[in-house]
Amino acid sequence: MRRRHLMLSLGALALPPLGAAAQSPLKLVVGFPPGTGPDVLARTLGQQLGEVMKQPVVIDNRAGAGGQIATQAVAKSAADGSTVLLGEVGSIAIAPAAYSKLPYDPARELLPVAEVVRSDFVLVVPAGSPAQDLKGFLAAAKAKSAGDRVNFATFGAGTPGHFGAELLAEQAQLRIEPVHYRATGDAITALVAGDVQAAFVSTALAVPQVKGGKLRALATTAAVRSPLLPDVATFAEAGWPKLDFSAWFALFVPAGTPAAVADQLGRQAVAAVQAPQVRQKLQEAGFTVTGLTRMETERVVKAETQRWAGIVKASGFKAD
């Protein structure tokens, strides 16, 4: 009997902890609708992250307000590591300077975990535009009579594309009029139709429109030419090195999440995006894989917040 009791006790020690075989899902919140670039990123990352963590990952699309709805939801969530934000430059680094009544404080309520990718921007014009290159576009814009402005489509006030246009206007001494659209599709439709004259769109979004002959690419904000658009020069090559902005995407958890949990999640996220098949898929989707550590990501977020605050202030823009 004693031997049988000992064998049962050892068998119990060998079993996994209660609930380990059916862990509750990790919720990955993304602030954009299904089918968009950020959603593709979230689902690609989520699938691989689930394999690395050996835990289900559920994608929660909280679209609206340029990512602010999703950011607010995670900022107010329990700090237990069960809810993670796929945050981006607009709602994290730009919004605090652009909105005086922002319903969350990224610096106080969110903890950076890992930057995973970046997405550069392409200055595009309608295919029927007389501007054949960046030089021609700028010359035509400057030649406009007093009061006339270049209409720039944006995917919402306070987004990188909005302030990218403002940055170009400041650098090149142009007069622009941002035209804010609620949905990405609406902005692209207006641009293709020639209702607006230009826009900064992500590389992922620009590629099919340019290759389909609906839009013309004039320059990219990337440090080097995109392999997806090898004939499109960078702004630096064209003589505008300060037009080097991009949209970065990073994971965040609510402030107060244990450091050990955040560290582990950061390592797992970096491993996920650096997996060869994931890296290839993200690059084909127009992203540049970065995979920064938690400390590196914290430095990036602080520096970017300061940089965009200066750009917002120079533009004179205030959303409320």
TrEMBL record:
<dbReference type="InterPro" id="IPR005064">
    <property type="entry name" value="BUG"/>
</dbReference>
<protein>
    <submittedName>
        <fullName>Tripartite tricarboxylate transporter substrate binding protein</fullName>
    </submittedName>
</protein>
<dbReference type="InterPro" id="IPR042100">
    <property type="entry name" value="Bug_dom1"/>
</dbReference>
<feature type="signal peptide">
    <location>
        <begin position="1"/>
        <end position="22"/>
    </location>
</feature>
<comment type="similarity">
    <text>Belongs to the UPF0065 (bug) family.</text>
</comment>
<dbReference type="Pfam" id="PF03401">
    <property type="entry name" value="TctC"/>
</dbReference>
<keyword id="KW-0732">Signal</keyword>
